[in-house]
Amino acid sequence: MSQAKFDIPFQSAVSPEVLDADTRIHFRCYKGISCFNACCKQADVTLAPYDVIRLKRRLGMSSTDFLAKYTVPFQMDQDGTPGIKLRTDDTGTCLQLNGDEGCGVYEDRPTVCRYYPVALLALREKGSAEAREQFSLVKEPHCKGHLEAREIRIGDYRTEQGVEEYDELNREWYQLILKKKSAGPTVGRPPETSLQLFFMASYDMDRFRRFVLSDNFRSTYQLTDDFYLELERSDEELLRFSYRFLRQVLFGEHSVQEAADAWEKRVAERKEVWDARREFELKRRAAAEDEKYRHQPDAESTPDQNPGDRPCCD
Ligand code: SF4
Ligand code: SF4
């Protein structure tokens, strides 16, 4: 029998028992239950890429603004892989909670909130980076939904909570993180630019779109005009493309064709940047030298000719 390793990426108070889609659980949550909103008042919600798309659209803001206003960053592993959580107030209450009405973004609530009290487990066979999805149950004392009589298959609970669409769009990202983990810790911290790229391509779709539609990107990667149009129009297509792009950049899995002279062009562009930087630095140093000599006392001048140099004035 093959050994397996379990990762529990998005919930922590989980029972160790691994469940599958056919497992039946007792659970029901509804407005009016005695603990209504208790979970949202101690929210610890990690967001996946598609969660951000749904929430920024719901709130009518750009992904960049949404990230700044409604999320907090954390490190997902010792390499500093960036993760984000929903921001709460000082008491731990989710900022999306709309008083006694419940979740203010219910139709677009994140994956973790949909799954609760089920936790999605990404399970990988030893020697494989591919994940299999299984589940576990989160049982927290404040949650009274477990005492309800209703029995439901986990598979049916997923359908009821609208999780499948989210999983479909986040699955490749989960795989990507598992693959990164299975590669082991990086020797030394990964370059800041690759962490920034991971952050942008995972969460900040509007910024990533500008990056992909830039002249620089277009001259480097050979994609058709129709495909670029699709990336311009659709967040979902852009997200799928971001996974391809991250696999290429992080793991060298080439699926985005680069222009034949892309490397030479990049070196030429870099050279322009390096030349400009060197020129700027030379000018800066020359200006600093000029400034230094301008403020030195002139041996020929008298104190009266340079009143600013006098130790005191009248
Ligand atoms: S997003 Fe909604 S369901 Fe999730 S913690 Fe916040 S208020 Fe609760
Ligand atoms: S039953 Fe659980 S999930 Fe539902 S409101 Fe109560 S604490 Fe939250």
Detailed description of the structure:
β3 and β4 (about 80-85) form a beta hairpin. The chain is an alpha+beta fold and about 325 residues long. Mean pLDDT is about 85; it is low at about 1-10 and about 295-314. Helix content is about 45%, strand content about 10%. About 25% of the residues are buried. Strands 1-5-6 form a 3-stranded antiparallel beta sheet. The chain has a two-stranded antiparallel sheet with strand order 2-7. The chain has a two-stranded antiparallel ribbon with strand order 3-4. It is built from 11 helices and 7 strands. The protein has 2 domains: about 5-180, no CATH class; about 190-250, no CATH class. The protein is elongated, with a radius of gyration of 27 Å. Bound molecules: iron/sulfur cluster (SF4) (2 copies). The site of one iron/sulfur cluster has 12 residues, from loops.
Structural class: alpha+beta
Helicity level, as a percent range? 40-55%
- Rg measurement, Å: 27 Å
| Number of structurally distinct domains | 2
Mean pLDDT, all residues = 84
How do the strands line up in the largest sheet?
1-5-6
Number of helices: 11
Q: Which molecules are bound in this entry?
A: iron/sulfur cluster
Order of helices and strands: EEHHEEHEEEHHHHHHHH
Q: What can be said about the biggest beta sheet?
A: 3 strands, antiparallel
Instruction: State the end-to-end CA separation.
Output: 94 Å
- Spatial shape: elongated
Q: What's the total count of β strands?
A: 7
